[in-house]
Task: structure prediction
Amino acid sequence: MIQSSIIIKTTAVLFLLSIPSVCSHAIWQQTVKSSDGKSASTLFMFEESPGLDEADEDFTQMASEKDINAYFTWIDFREKEEKAEKLSIVKKGRFIVADLPEGSLGDQQSYALESSTLWGVHADGTHPPMLVYFYTGASKLIKRSVDIDRVTFASKNKFVSLLTISQDPCEGKDVSSFVCIEATAEFDGLKLPMHEITLYDGDTAQIIVKGNTTGFGNAFLPVPRTTNRIFGKVKHDEDISGVSDDGEKYDLTTHIATSFLELTSSPADYPDDVVLDSPPEGKLEEVKEQVKEQEMKEDVKEQEVEEEVKEQENSTGGMFNLVIIAHLGLMAFIGSFLGGFVVESLKNHRDRSYDVAATDEVDLKIRDAESC
Result:
């Protein structure tokens, strides 16, 4: 009995340890492309640390069951209003995948790429029950001074977190060895001062540097120039309590935002375990044959339609010619009788003598001609 009790308690502890702490986790996203550069997507992960290698299918399954809203918005100076495109997302193995518009990662144009989700009430015994929101962005700014306000304005997220390359060096750091990153945090239109921002190496998932935002809601953080890509994370708490739509009480509202910045000219390739939407391996030739056969069928059908149209045109043309000939013949027939009538009338008028029988005969022929 004691042994059974120990087994039950041990199992319960292991089960609790297997549940991820939402406070330490976050939803991250990273843009990737195909090796030929024709396809591009953004990949979502639910992990403590960012990076493609950190993705776990079980945790991703948890995130895929939430309602993740993902948006892509071009920043186009020619348009007065930016048009946001809601992205379709689907779980593929260890990742949640959203395909991006063609040419988006290679185009020299700024865009806002972001997502958000209401996770729900979380209580793990070490923190008060809290209502948790996650936000993640991977926006691109070509010209920071010009684009940052427009990207922020175009954002669909309440919590905007951006990483950009600063034009000025970080204080005390050699520009030949470090690049200065300006990290900004804004919530509901207000800059967030004194909020800790953590930067991670996108390839190793290691923390590079931490720093607090200034009164302007930004922090200048040095990153080694050898770094290919970085992630940022910032948290904002609101002293708001209540009851969720599911009837769960919470004492605090927590917002966790992450951001991504590619420091190289070429994004990472799709992970090997992300299968693109293409014909299955080994069936490519079969698919090609099916396509070829379908094209041949369409060509034959098109030829039959063309021949049918030609026959109708020929038939219609022949009928039209017969009608024209009939009309011309009728006109000639009527004209001959009218001409004869006129001549005869002139002769009778000259002789002042009328032949009633002949006139009746002409009138009869004219009536017969008109009835045709």
Observations:
- Residues 286-371 form one domain.
- The chain has a mean pLDDT of 77.
- The radius of gyration is 40 Å.
